[in-house]
Every structure is written in C-alpha cells, then in structure tokens.
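#structure-requests
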Amino acid sequence: MTMTLIDQGVRNVANFRRKLKTCLEINTATESKEKSQLEELELFTKYYQLWKGNNVQNNNTYYSIPKFYCQLPLEEEILLQKVREEARALFLQRRSRVLLGNEELQHLWFLLDKHHTPPLVADEQMINYHDFLKVAEQAGSKCKSFFTATIFGKLYQNENYGRIPIMQFFNYVMRKVWLHQTRIGLSLYDVTGLGYLKETDLENYILELIPTLPRNSQLHTWIIKGGYRLNILERSFYSFYVCTAVRKFFFFLDPMRTGKIKILDILACGFLDNLLELRDEELSKEMQESNWFSAPSALRVYGQYLNLDKDHNGMLSKEELSRYGTGTLTDVFLDRIFQECLTYDGEMDYKTYLDFVLALENRKEPQSLQYLFRILDVQQKGYLDTFSLNYFYRAIQEQMKRHKQEPILFEDVRDEIFDMVKPKEPFKITLQDLIHSGKGDTVLSILIDLNDFWTYENREYIVLDGSKEEDEIYKI
C-alpha cells in the first residue's frame, strides 16, 4: 500500500515537471516571436525615416488622411449643384478646345500629302517614320499625341519600305477625334457626372440629335408612304422613335437592368455609328431598313405593335401578342413572358414589347440568350434540365397535333439538344453553355416556336429544295 502511494506520487511529480517544461518552452517561443516582431518594426521605422528623410516626423500632414471623396450635392442643395454643373461645363469646354477642328484636320492632310514617301502602292500614298516625324514637327501641339512610335507601329503592316498608308493614319486620327467629340457630347447629358447615362439622359441626347439626321427628319412622310395610316403629326412620333432607339442601347448594354449605361460602353458598342450614319443622305433603302435606328425600321416596329393592338388601348394582351411574327409562338412561352416581364394589369406596354422584339430578332447575341434563358428557366435554378425542356416541348407537340402532324418523341429532341450544347455538367444546360456552344439560338427557338422547330427539323429537305431551284435557274 505504501509503495503504491509512493509510485503514484513519483508519477505526479514527473507529469508536473513535463507540463512545467512545456509551458516554459511556449512562453520562451512567444517571447522570442514578440521580440523579433519588435526588432522588425524598429528596423522598418529606421530605414523608412532614413529613405524618406525627417519630413515624416516634422510634417503634420503625414498624420491625417487626405480627402479623396466628395459626396454629390443633395437635391435641396441647389447652389452646390449649380457650382458643380458649371465646373463640369468648363472642364468639358477645355477638353473640346484641345481637339482638332476642320481646318486643323485639313492642314494635317496637306502636310501628310506633302511629305509622303514614294513610291506609291496601288495609287495609295505611304509615309515612313522619318517623314512621319517631319509632319509631327509642323502639325502643331494638338497633333502631338498622334505622332508616336506606338501608333506608327500599330498601323505598320510589314510593308517592304517600312511605311504606313497616309489614308489609314488620317482615318485613325479622325476616328479618335470623333470619339473624343462624342464622349464630350454625351458627357453634357451626364447629370451626375459619374460617367454613365440614365434612360432619361440618353432620351434627351437622341431627341436633340433627331434634327441633325436628314433621314429621320421626315418621319411623317415615312408614315404615310409606309402605309401605316397613322394620323399623327411628325413631332408626335418623336417620343416613340426615341423610345425605340434608346431600348436597343439599354437592352444590349444594360442586361442586368441597372437603369444606367457607361458612356465608354456606348462609344465602344458601335450603335452610335449606326445612328449617325443616317446623316448620309445617299444611304440606300436596304441599309436604312436594316438599321434599327432609321425611320423605316422604327415605323416597322411601331406599325407591328399597332397592328397587334386590336382593342386600340395602347397595350398588348397575351392573345394579341400571340399573333406576333408567324403566330406560332407557344402558349407556354407567352405565359412565361407575361410572368417574367414587366406588365400593367396583365398587358404589355411598348417598351416591354421592344425588349421582346430585340430578343427574338437577335437570338444569337448573348443578351438575347440571357433574356430567353430567363423565360425558359421555369424553376429559377440557373440551368435547364430535362424537366424544363419537356415543359416547353410539350407545347410544341400540342401545336403539331393541332396541325395534324406526327409529333416527335421528346426523348429524341432532348438527346439532340444535349448533343448540340454539350454542357459541362451532364443534363444541366446553363446560360454559359448555350453561349459557348454557338447553338443557343437554335436550341431556344425550337422550344418556343413551332415554325422554327419545323424549319430545323426539315433543314435537310429545305437545303435540297434550295439547291434544286438554283440548278433550274442556272439551266435557264
């Protein structure tokens, strides 16, 4: 008994010594770590002051954070708003003064023509870098930014004599000047001054742009000639035209529906080019009809809207919209349109209709695929599965039966869709899968429109018939 107590006491003492040793080691490690951190901080402070000098200690500004954010004036702060607007206007004026004017551009062309480097290449004047610098010296300070080695290198296309085309360089300069001018013009409508335009801002810009577009100045004449029989004055159509034009910008540049678009995105997208090319009075009829911003195109869309509006209440019901196009859109798809899109008492206004038209007329574009994908994603899972595909395809089968056609099995269509898209995750088609496959427009079309499904299903016969017709034409 005594020996047992002694052994137990010895073990307790041994355990205590081990624990004490461990604690001492931990404390020592902690102290050494803290000591090394202090030494590191002292060395950093020493060398920082050595390299920066003693101004760090003597100058009080080093101990306060400078103001880098200024809050926008509130609505009731009218004076501050006026001051801010005036400051922005002066800034934009200064920016516009450094741009090349017409006379300066003409002078630049004269210098390029004078100092071109022979020989000509297919009647096109060229210039080497040496003469390029000569022009830079005489062109003036406003042109200095264009005469750099970087720009010359960008335009150089491995020409035998190390030259670039004069016309190509001049077009580059004019394009840059136009972009800066347009950016300044758009910035004048940027009420907040934060680099983006709201819907009302862009509407004001386009409204004031209409008189400068000869092709759109006679909207009333186009209405009469187009046969739409719209008993309205020319200016009364402006609001519908502006709405039609603005919707394209916002549909493609604001897919997340934030209600604003960056000015840089507007400049980069190319829509302004399409809009401003209407200033060309010699623009062909075909070019006008294919240009969304032209009067004929706007009147076509608006005329379709009026033709669909049978009860003339200015809105479209589901039944009225069902006659859109070939009238073969499925009821299930139309139901989803009215569930997901903004409606008023179950009816669609002109602005919502424009989004609908833009999506269906540009189905290959990612923004259109996003619009249609949201409609087809019934369960809002972020992907289309077998249930989603079957949900919409059943409506196609019903339409086929209605037209006394033999419906195709869903399993066959499902397998073909998955083969076309090849989704990353089996049997789950995401929006990115549709975009990357390059077949997104086909997949969505055959699920929402009987006519598109029939066209796809009979594509081989259509191609054969087309080739036969061509052969007959050549024989004639």
